[in-house]
Design brief:
about 10% strand; about 50% helix; two-stranded antiparallel sheet
């Protein structure tokens, strides 16, 4: 009896582990982002801003479509205001990610952590779209300026 139960239990555990990491974007988030932004993207007061329910609304603006992939590639630096207060630091870019990985990570941050604030009709990123953004290189300070423009435009609506 125990001999039949043990392999079945191992199989069930393996299946559960596979389900837990079924989203490659989540695995990338857990590996590269959760250490600072915390699991679920809730942020860490005084250290890292929240990502959950704070990023997706920028996609309602045309220029906002570039925001998340640019941050992933080049990072962001300088003061930013968030729901957890003001942060003045620097997030490194993750240029080492492939275009497909950057798209998966962006889609996870937006689809899983920002679904409630995404504009209607959000279309997930493709690796090709992320690759095309390389033609418009940006720096961390430029990304903060983009954030400021987007946030000002959203407030003016």
């Amino acid at each position: 009896m125990a001999a039949r139960f043990f392999p079945a239990a191992l199989g069930a555990l393996g299946l559960l582990a596979g389900v837990a990491q079924a989203d490659p974007g989540q695995a990338l988030f857990d590996k590269h982002c959760a250490i600072c932004h915390q699991p679920g993207g809730v942020g860490a007061p005084g250290y890292a801003p929240p990502l959950a329910d704070t990023v997706g609304q920028r996609l309602a603006l045309e220029e906002g479509r570039d925001y998340v992939p640019r941050i992933l590639r080049a990072g962001i630096s300088g003061p930013i205001d968030t729901t957890l207060g003001r942060f003045n630091g620097a997030m490194p870019g993750f240029a080492q990610l492939s275009d497909a990985e950057a798209a998966q990570l962006a889609n996870y941050v937006l689809g899983a952590l920002n679904a409630s604030v995404l504009p209607a009709g959000f279309v997930p990123y493709t690796a090709e779209e992320v690759a095309a953004l390389k033609a418009k290189p940006a720096s961390a300070p430029e990304n903060r300026k983009l954030r400021e423009r987007l946030d000002a435009a959203l407030k003016a609506r």
